[in-house]
Amino acid sequence: MTLDKKFLKKIKGDASFRSFYRKEYRKKKSIIVVAKKEKKKNLLIYDAINKLLIKNGIRAPKLLNHNYHKNYIEIEDFGKLTIYSILKNKKKNKLQIFKKIIVLLNKMQKIKNNKIKNFNNKNYILPVYSKKLIADESKLFLKWYIPNIFIKKKALTLNKKLTTKINLLLSKLKLKNNTFVHRDFHVSNLMKLKKKIGILDSQDAVYGNKAYDLASLIDDVRLKTSLKLKNSIYNYYVYLNKKKINKNHFRNDFEILSVLRNLKVIGIFTRLAVRDDKKSYLKLIPYAWKLIENRINNNLIFVDLKNYLDANFSKKIRMKK
To answer: Does the reported pTM lie above 0.70?
Structure first.
């Protein structure tokens, strides 16, 4: 298959190295995903995870064509209507939409097989979301954000102290790494498909902590929601899973993973601005700080971290875009 540019229209991308094009040919639409960097993850692994989701009755884009040598795949077009855009414009009954998302999350978390073939007919096995990997991601905050705020000497001191505090939090996680984790499960990656919801951007999926995707959904930096709504979504998930989880252990891990994820997010958004000149994400950093505050201000497990962050990251710093 060759690509004729006259049938392609570039569409808004994401924070990855991929580019996206909507193809319209003979009244049929599809999406062309182009990836010259991190090609294996963004093409081969993305297709493999989508196949795994589809195999388990979850709507993910089907592969239509591929040309790995020329750095692209062609996948099903899920349209333009994200759940994010629906929630952004909806003033009431947001919880009803989130309840449907929780049902989808439950279905996804029932996936037991962790091996699938990619379009090159090779097996792909989902990696385990180890504490080391979570720590490495959280430390993106140290690698990118802190040096962008402080002089080198203070940055080194902060990084050393915060590394210890991050590792201590990780040691307090209770749940096993035995659940399918999308790893970027938020409403911008969910699409309205008639009466169903489709999932995008699954290439980073792993087997990990059951609380991670719920934390990603509820404490999503892209969509501001009230604490009341956050608590209602959380309680609905717990209600549906009350026979499957230890409530205290689950809450413990949910809050730790939420904080570590949003530290990672601040680091990633800074990296996008500094390294890739994608500065639009910087405006989300103050809300990421707010999400961290919501968790660390009300849980004794975070007392040490809270005191250290309060002593070194003023309100002025946190509000900086």
So the answer is: yes
The CATH number given to whatever domain includes residue 19 is: 3.30.200.20
Q: In Å, how far are 52, 84, 93, 176, 202 from 179, measured between CA atoms? A: 14, 25, 30, 8, 15
Number of folded domains that form the chain: 2
Q: Are strands 72-76 and 63-67 parallel, antiparallel or unpaired?
A: antiparallel
66 shares its domain with 147: no
Query: Which residue segment(s) compose the domain that 116 sits in?
Result: 83-319
CA dist 200 and 186 (Å) reads: 10
Same-domain status, 217 and 121: yes
The CATH number of residue 274's host domain is 3.90.1200.10
Asked if 67 and 132 sit in the same domain, the reply is no
pLDDT digits (tens, 9 = 90+) for 200-249: 999 999 999 999 999 999 999 999 999 999 999 999 999 999 999 999 99
Express each pLDDT in 45-101 by its tens digit.
999 999 999 999 999 999 999 999 999 999 999 999 999 999 998 878 899 999 999
Angstrom distance (rounded) from CA 170 to CA 158: 18
Asked if residue 60 lies in contact with residue 199, where contact means CB atoms within 8 angstroms, the answer is: yes
Per-residue model confidence as pLDDT tens digits over 218-228:
999 999 999 99
